[in-house]
Design brief:
By secondary structure, the protein is of the alpha+beta class. It has seven helices and 24 strands. Helix content is 20%, strand content 37%. Belongs to the FlgI family.
């Protein structure tokens, strides 16, 4: 008998409660946690390479011909020329074609090392135990900025026997800590004389004005000016050394950022619901029930009489049961806090799917005092 059943799972909400709401608003942050310096950014690097030393888990040459082609090209660069008959029938099982990615941090200098991520692009089943061969990593301009090579660290593993298999995490991607040497620097506008721009992580007119005000009170009025909700322009010294000291002083200044907006974030694909600390409700009543559907199927055998004509047949028989629980009515007073909402919804056993439907209905009714964002 096969049974399909829709089950209810308990709702788990993570809440952070504070002694008083104004304490959250009065929490100060350093400027370094709120802004980045304009033009100072990391850059993405990418490269194509080969991973060797796999225990028979590499690409299948008949289905992934570019792996064998890349291996033959590497042999030629190393001075190894295989006969045409051997090259045509070459089918290594311990080699895999991979894409190597990395982030080049700002101010990285030649000789420094960065972490790289290695991902299979063929039909290799696992990269565990493999070694990445020398792979140039290029930027968006086509220039080589780093060279990667080393032994892979793969967090996943798998096993199979007699048609049964089991796997934990991903076995076709791994990392090489400090696996690439930086070969070229990326120029930025930090060394150029003139004003510098502080770009806010979260644009806010209030936070931008407060940052400019704190800088002017500490370093002199006229030094900083908030241009808009996302940029604060500061008049920095001309010499590089003085600019470093100047930015160091700014980074360590304390600023009280604007109180975050009341927001509810919903991820309908995973059933995740996150409610911000400033979410409140107006007066409303909520009634929500649940529906449980059970589909069962069993097989009956029909046999003819011992001396009668006929054949033995199997007859499937299915049954469908539908159960709907009574709706529970919840009353919320105006200005009710997030903590009270969480307690009430947990008390009735609301699942994440139920909570999503309830919050969307509250927003449509005008009772949810928060922005509803679906990701």
């Amino acid at each position: 008998m096969r049974t399909w059943r829709w089950k209810r799972f308990p709702l788990i909400l993570l809440t952070v409660t504070l002694a008083a709401g104004y304490l959250a608003a009065a929490h100060a942050e350093t400027v370094r946690n709120l802004v980045t310096v304009g033009g100072v950014r990391s850059n993405q690097l990418v490269g194509y390479g080969l991973v060797v030393g796999l225990n028979g888990t590499g690409d299948q040459a008949t289905q992934v011909p570019y792996t064998t082609q890349s291996l033959l090209n590497m042999f030629q660069r190393l001075g190894i020329n295989l006969p045409a008959a051997v090259a045509t029938n070459l089918q290594p099982k311990d080699v895999a074609a991979v894409i190597v990615t990395a982030h080049l941090p700002p101010f990285a200098q030649p000789g420094q090392t960065i972490n790289v991520t290695v991902s299979a692009v063929g039909n290799a089943s696992s990269l565990a135990g493999g070694t990445l061969l020398m792979t140039p990593l290029k930027g968006a301009d086509g220039q080589t900025y780093a060279v990667a090579q080393g032994n892979l660290i793969v967090s996943g593993f798998g096993a199979s026997s007699n048609g049964a298999s089991a796997q934990v995490n991903v076995t076709t991607a791994g990392t090489i800590p400090n696996g690439a040497n930086v070969e070229r620097t990326v120029t930025n506008g930090f060394d150029r004389a003139g004003p510098m721009t502080l770009e806010l992580h979260t644009p806010s007119f209030t936070t931008a004005a407060r940052i400019a005000d704190v800088i002017n009170r500490q370093l002199g009025y006229g030094i900083a000016e908030a241009m808009n909700a996302g940029e604060v322009v500061v008049q920095a010294p001309a010499s590089p050394g003085a600019r470093v000291t100047f930015l160091s002083e700014i980074e360590n200044l304390d600023v009280i950022p604007e109180t975050p907006l009341a927001k509810v974030v919903i991820d309908a694909r995973s059933g995740t619901v996150v409610l911000g600390q400033n979410v409140t409700l107006g007066a409303c009543a909520v009634a929500h029930g649940s529906l449980s559907v059970t589909i069962s199927q069993k097989y009956l055998v029909s046999q003819p009489n011992p001396l009668g004509a006929g054949q033995t047949v199997v007859i499937p028989q299915a049954s469908v049961n539908i159960k709907q629980s009574n709706a529970k009515l919840l009353m919320f007073k105006p200005g009710v806090s997030l903590e009270a909402v969480v307690r009430a919804l947990n008390a009735v056993g609301a699942t994440p799917t139920d909570l999503i439907a309830i919050l969307q209905a509250m927003k449509a009714a005008g009772a949810l005092h928060a922005q509803l964002e679906v990701v």
